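Attaching the record inline, Q. Sequence:
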Amino acid sequence: MHRRLLAVLVPLAVLLVAALGVPLSVTVAEREMQETYVDRLNDAGRFASLAENALSTGRTEALHEELARYHELYGVPVAVIDTSGTVLLGPADAYRDAARAEPALPRVVTAALAGARSEPSGEWAPWDDSALVVAEPVGRDSEVVGAVVTISDLTKTRHRILVRWAQLAGLGLLPLIALVAVAWPVSAWVLRPVRELDAASSRISRGDLTIRADAEAGPVELRRLAESFNTMMDAVENAAQRQRAFVSDASHQLRNPLTSLRLAVESLEPHLRAAGDGRQVYDIAVDELKAMQRLLNSLQASARMESIRTASPVDLDAVLATRVDRWRALTATAGQTLKVDVPPGLRLLEPPGGLGSILDELISNALRLSDARVVEVTARVVPDGAGHPSAAGGVVTIAVRDDGQGIDASERAQALRRFWRSPRHQNVTGTGLGLAICADLVGAAGGELRLEEGLPRPDGSGRGFAAVVALPVVAQVASSDAPAPSPV
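Structure, as predicted:
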């Protein structure tokens, strides 16, 4: 998280340094060029003064030698030319070679012969290879008899500009490095409570209500936020615990009176007449008492399972190894066929209460409610968590399908509600809690339980029922020793 904060701060600091550094770099380059120009202009002015005397007296040898030594010493060809552009004094060959490469020379010379001084060169950029041409008129006003022209290679000047720019860039990096050096630990200190709150929220979303944030670190505002978060979680956990305790205690406290009531009702059986209305009322009362006992048992089981709120990794092979034989026996007793098609090596996040208990409930529903001939259990890996944004690493989908009666789409939308039962199943043993509890537990592990159409019915009249459990994939760390069930 603090990397993203630095990704915002560092570009802003770079823009600030660039806003200050670019104009300063231009100023430095122009100053270096200006110094070179002034130096060459002073030399040209001195030579122009000497040339005026030399041309007027005819004593040009000394000036010619001085111009040659100047060229030899500084590498700058200096020539005295007349109004027609002919070289009168100086290293003529070097001057002509340098002049051929300078398109600006005629303009500068023409201005000097007209009595005007050269303007400073605007070509200061280090990547420009043009030379600096300076021309100084010999004579004044209408008495201009020639000009002194210097053609200076600016390689060294531009090299100095690059060196100065490198120095400025180094100085500009210092505040950026200082910013990163200070902002990294500061942002980590400021944002650490936020990261901990994020991690705590993630664990809470998986059902762990015992997690708390550190309210002793970070800025004052974030400490207050962490304290408020912990207070809120205390209230949520207490409410959940009170709710589970109420369900558990109520079902437990009702269990004994209900058992006594059932025994009392059943003790009336010997006193009933064989042919009378009492027998029918007695049977209804016993059935209702049995249904209430099943409901209490389901409520107690729900309270126990929901009290386990931590999801953990599990090998699907290990879960199936302890259950497939029992499922086969149950389906064989009911005259049904069980098919298992699960690839080995799948590792996923197990919901609170155990994945085996959830699959037992789904198999039990298929046996009791569907009137199916075939029950099929399959598992597949869906990469990249398609359809499940919370499982970016992918999900394992476990489907329990049958070819029985099934339920229509409107009933599937309600089947995950607590105590809901299809009108066709009102006389079938059950409480309407199983699928709802399973959906809650799967959701606590970051997964999803959805209901779909099942296998085609043998008579072609439609499709059966399917319950699909989607749970996040967990990286495989070790293979299970338990043998994987073979597809049948």
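Confidence is low (pLDDT under 50) at residues 386-391, 478-488. DSSP finds twelve helices and eleven strands in the chain.

More tomorrow.
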